[in-house]
Design brief:
This protein is mainly α. The chain has one domain. The longest helix has 54 residues. It is globular and about 65 Å long. The protein starts with 6 loop residues before the first helix and ends with a helix.
């Protein structure tokens, strides 16, 4: 099957993925440092307020680009000549639409009867997401050109600035509102730097109001826009519902658990971002290469996702205590359940991007709509009974449903797509790792984690987890990363 796969494609994907992965590892580590500082300096109540503001802000500002940002990646990847016009129109349109977004934020603050501090956090969070979205529009051009190293460098700078300012305001004795301003300031700097890079290395946005272009492209982009809103709701609705039934403390404990479980989402997200332009081309030029890409990407994500889920589920207690202290022990059951979410979310990233690359955005919209409806119902049912543990059950259950739908329709549009047989060896190695953890779990957690990682990969290799195609790709990946 590898004959369908250009070595230059493998090397380009490898270079882009490694650049993004290093950047996201740095970002993840720094973000976790800031979360730990917030929870230890300000407590679960303040962290809960920040979580609610960020969640509502993310949902209410997601409509600003109206889906043109995602459509732009696909279209520019196929025709680079459209980049300047796409980018200029998207930036103008999104800037205009940010105004009604703040109207929605004001309405939400009133309906939720937020106290002044929480309302201030929500307004700042809304501005933060608008700036991030505008910067993301420009970075989409980098992605379409498959030059992910620029995204990696800029992302690292933003993370460093966020943590530096956030840490400074905490050490100076300021509260959670000042911390929220740290996010805003870093996003503003990121937008400026991203625009400068685009103008010097890629394209200068052609800022214009082209109603004919808007009308033509918005028809295509509408499913992307609706899907973006549904996806944001899907990702954040648990926090909103939890706050409606429980206290800010409960939200803080829950956000502490999700910060650990969700942080690993950068792995499938970066891989999906890296292969999306290539998959869009394969849909036109080689269906076999498209299917091969999905299967290999899914396999590698399962190789990482299954042991992560196993380790987090078994070591949730020591992990929470290590990062947040014993006062956050109510988050332990939620983290154990959220571990189940990890492998499903890994696979959903690749399967979802496959449907996008095949121009099946409407189908993906319906899939996400069904899963979001299920998540809302599950949250409403479980949260009032089980608080944050119920929210975790709803997340894991709805993510499993999303995987089932993605895989079912993926098979319909890519017959012969096989994933379950690829899961057997990672699952077997994870089971062996679980046995090792059970035997030595009384040791220091760092020792347990190192032993578990060694045991897993030793078992996986002993089971013949990597086949000839994998070994060939690994060699090409190494050449792509090393430049040889």
């Amino acid at each position: 099957m590898l004959q369908f796969y250009s070595m230059s494609n493998v090397r380009r994907v490898a270079k882009n993925f490694v650049a993004l992965t290093i950047s996201q590892l740095v970002a993840m580590g720094l973000a976790l440092v800031l979360v730990i500082l917030i929870t230890r300096y300000l407590g679960s109540d303040s962290y809960g307020k920040l979580g609610v503001g960020m969640a509502v802000g993310a949902i209410l500002t997601i409509f600003a680009p109206l889906g043109l940002d995602q459509l732009m990646i696909r279209e520019v990847a196929r025709d680079k000549a459209t980049a300047a016009k796409y980018l200029g129109n998207v930036l103008v349109l999104e800037s205009l639409l940010s105004v009604p977004c703040f109207g929605l934020i004001a309405l939400a603050a009133r309906i939720m009867r937020l106290p002044p501090e929480s309302a201030s956090i929500l307004y700042i969070a809304g501005g933060y997401y608008i700036l991030v979205s505008l910067g993301g529009d420009i970075k989409n051009i980098f992605q379409a050109y498959e030059k992910m190293e620029y995204i990696a460098i800029l992302g690292t700078i933003r993370s460093v600035v966020t943590v530096a300012i956030g840490t400074a305001v905490l050490l100076l004795g300021y509260g959670i509102v000042a911390v929220t301003w740290a996010y805003f300031a870093a996003a503003a700097l990121d937008l400026f730097l991203t625009l400068m890079v685009s103008m010097k290395r890629f394209v200068r946005p052609r800022l214009e109001i082209d109603f004919v272009f808007w009308k033509q492209k918005l028809t295509l982009a509408l499913p992307f826009a609706i899907l973006a809103f549904i996806t944001a709701t899907y990702a954040q609705v648990d926090v909103v519902i939890l706050r409606a039934f429980q206290s800010d403390d409960a939200v803080g404990w829950y956000r502490a658990a999700t910060a650990l479980a969700y942080n690993f989402g950068f792995i499938p997200s970066m891989l999906a971002s890296t292969i999306f332009p290539m998959m869009s081309r394969f849909h036109v030029s080689s269906k076999e290469s498209l299917k091969f890409t999905v299967q290999r990407a899914s396999k590698y994500l399962m190789v990482l996702g299954f042991p992560l889920a196993t380790g987090i589920a078994m070591l949730a207690g020591p992990i929470i205590t290590l990062f947040y202290g014993a006062v956050f022990s109510p988050a332990v059951p939620a983290l154990r359940i959220l571990a189940v979410y990890i492998p499903f979310s890994f696979l959903n990233s690749v399967l979802g991007i496959m449907l996008f690359s095949m121009d099946k955005q409407r189908l993906r919209l319906y899939i996400y709509l069904a899963s979001t409806g299920a998540r809302i119902l599950l949250n409403l049912f479980f949260i009032w009974k089980l608080s944050l543990t119920g929210a975790a059950i709803a997340i894991a259950g709805s993510e499993a449903l999303l995987f089932g739908l993605n895989y079912y329709f993926g098979l319909k549009h890519a017959p012969g797509l096989k994933l379950f047989n690829l899961a057997l060896k990672p699952l077997a190695a994870s089971a062996g790792m679980a046995a090792i953890i059970f035997v030595i779990k009384g040791q220091e957690i760092v020792v347990v984690i190192i032993a578990a990682v060694i045991a897993y990969f030793a078992l996986f290799l002993a089971l013949g987890g990597f086949d000839h195609d994998d070994r060939s790709m690994i060699k090409d990946i190494w050449r792509g990363v090393s430049g040889k």
